[in-house]
Amino acid sequence: MAALGWITPRRRSATARSVLAGEAAAEAARKSAQEAAGRAGESEPAAAAGGAAEPEFPVAGDVRAAAFFDLDNTVMQGAALFHFGRGLYKRHFFRKRELMRFAWQQTWFRLAGVEDPEHMQDARDSALSIVQGHRVSELMSIGEEIYDEYMAERIWPGTRALAQAHLDAGQKVWLVTAAPVETATIIARRLGLTGALGTVAESIGGVYTGRLVGEPLHGPAKAEAVRALAAAEGLDLSRCAAYSDSANDIPMLSIVGYPYAVNPDSRLRKHARERGWRLRDYRTGRKAAKVGIPAAAGVGALAGGTAAAIALHRRRR
């Protein structure tokens, strides 16, 4: 990924760095999508939604609409960055001590169901130090393997069916995540999505420098990335949808006409109910009950995604 320049916190405000991160993510996402379009036929086919129930939205044929999906705990169980760390450890990129820290952060995330800013900062700094000096092409190749090893089986079938509904309606579907854009792009391609907006790490001559372009694509930076991409793609945000599990993504959810809270944390669930946003829960009955959602809602959502789960399972065999 070509560097767009390194801006330190002392030279730019947090808002400016969010804009920079968002613009960098949008540029990277469009470039990846254009390259993928040029290789049409090489990408894996999208999994069929099968008998999953059609969501209330999207509107078929509305090409000025698109869908934006958060990744961690929305599309996939757990955090992509932690799964990526496990794969790098297996390939001897770092020591057991770092793996144990990753494992603890991932366990906390899965149990609490919310992001801890300190954990995310620690994971980001660790990942940058680990990949510094490595070629982008090397990490992309390894990322493909890690997806198969740790991520493919953690995709939520219900959320996958929602994304497929947008694709079937002729709309573009983008992942929007704080995970590295390279990892996010691999996941998007494997799921048959249009592309991904992710955190852009600086590289020079195809080699990672260990620095970021702007800041992680998190919170307000996600909203900036969606705005930048919508402007470049000629989208009408009032006709677009966004999906997330976290209150950290309220800025992104608030700029579209169709916000969805998917597997929401307690703060987002409260916010969504106050504003009449749509809610979807694809966790188990026990997990749904833990966060205050009727168990039947979780079980019913899982049943609704059964066909998609079968399709994904067959494709991986």
Automatic annotation (TrEMBL):
Residues 34-53 have a biased composition (Low complexity). Pfam families: HAD. InterPro entries: HAD-like_SerB (IPR050582), HAD-like_sf (IPR036412), HAD_hydro_SerB1 (IPR006385), HAD_sf (IPR023214). Keywords: Hydrolase, Membrane, Transmembrane, Transmembrane helix. Coiled coil: none annotated. PANTHER family: PHOSPHOSERINE PHOSPHATASE (PTHR43344), PHOSPHOSERINE PHOSPHATASE SERB1 (PTHR43344:SF15). NCBIfam families: HAD-SF-IB (TIGR01488), HAD-SF-IB-hyp1 (TIGR01490). This is HAD-IB family hydrolase.
